[in-house]
Structure formats: structure tokens, C-alpha cells
Amino acid sequence: MSDVFGRALLDYQKGEYTEDIKTYSSLDEADVIPVPYLFREFDEMPKIEQKALQLARGKVLDIGAGAGSHALYLQNKGFDVTALDNSEGCIAVCKERGIHSTVVSDVLDYANERYDTLLLLMNGIGLAGKLNNLSNFLQHLASLLQPNGRILLDSSDIIYMFEQDEDGGYWIPNNGTYYGEIVFEMEYKGQKGKPFDWVYVDFDTLQNACESNGLDCELVISGEHFDYLAKLTLKK
């Protein structure tokens, strides 16, 4: 079953919530994504997400919309917002929650319109999968922007997950890959989805990638746990 995430959200939406989504990654032990958290209101969101929503302008594309909590908040504020997700289950939930404009698609396959704001929250840059895909990913995002548009994304520097030595350096496996690259797998009600690549990008690495792809990259705020919000705009 490929859409375990969408199925979990649909169950919650129908009032059939009995368990959370289990996650397994190549870096860490098993963890869970609490399904109710994906349906959070603005007041329950981390400061980074609240700030991103406050910086949204004009016509908005919420990429990797999930249960649509960010899109719904903006729509209720009067924004013209489209929720995009490659999960049919997620988009069904977005529709049931009242989001007017939705798209089932991978963002890399989507090129229909241009937007004033692209939102990629909950480590949305992770959709690039691997660091060597980041340039193509950023170029595609740039192609979806209006000339004065902005991309608002958050990510984390997961260096903290590696062991530190006495002089403050980190022990990072030297296997030729970027330390933020992870393989994830999700499980819900005993069924596992397909493993997928995900990447956490530290701010300096993101800024360098933007610089070589015609984008300005501004650090908006840093969170409490090595996370940050960045605002990307097209170079003038």
C-alpha cells in the first residue's frame, strides 16, 4: 500500500483515529507522527510555521499540503490558495476540510501556473530527496514564481544527531553522501509504504545552492532545535 500517510489522515477525518503513523529512518530508531498534530490550528503551530504564514502574499501554492492546515488557515484569511500533494488521500482530506483549490501531483510534475508565494513547510525542501537534486528542485520552484514572488521553506540542520567529540566537532560517517540525506519508511495499521529519500538541508548549504541557481536566500528566524525558516526570492 503506497499511500499510508493519506490513509491515516482520511481515517482521522472520518473520526476513525485509533493509532499514529510509525516512521523508520536510516538515521534514527523508530518514531511516530501523531496524526492529530497534522490537523493543528494556527495557535498550535511552531513559531516558524506561524511566521511563514504571516509572510505569505498574494496567490499561494502550499506544496506537500498534507491535511491542509496551512492552506486552510490562509484560505480563511482570504488568500487564493491551492493545496498540492502527491497523496490522493491527503487531497481528499483537504477537500473535505473545505479547501477550494487542490491538485494531486508531484511538485516536479506541476507547471500549470505561477504564484506569489510557494510554501514548503514541515521540512518541505526534503521533497528534493537528495542533495544532488537540490539545484533542479530549486530551479523548478523558481519557474513557478511570479517575478516578485517568494518561497518560504523550513528545514533543520541534523548535525546534532551525530556524536560530538571533546573539541566540539561531529563524527559524521564518511560514506560520500551528505549527512542530511535519509531514507524514510512509514507504517500505518500494519501496512508499510515504499521507502523514500528525504533530505534535511543546513542553511549554509541551502544558501550556496540558491546562489548558484539565481535565488536570494534570507534566514528569517531560527527555531529552538537546529531548525530555521528561509525566504527565497528571484535575484533582481
From TrEMBL:
Keyword field contains Transmembrane helix: no
The enzyme's E.C. designation: 2.1.-.-
GO term, biological process aspect, one: methylation
Keyword rRNA-binding: no
InterPro entries listed in its UniProt record: SAM-dependent_MTases_sf
Stated name of the protein: Class I SAM-dependent methyltransferase
Species this chain originates from: Flagellimonas halotolerans
Pfam family, one: Methyltransf_23
UniProt entry keywords in alphabetical sequence: Methyltransferase, Transferase
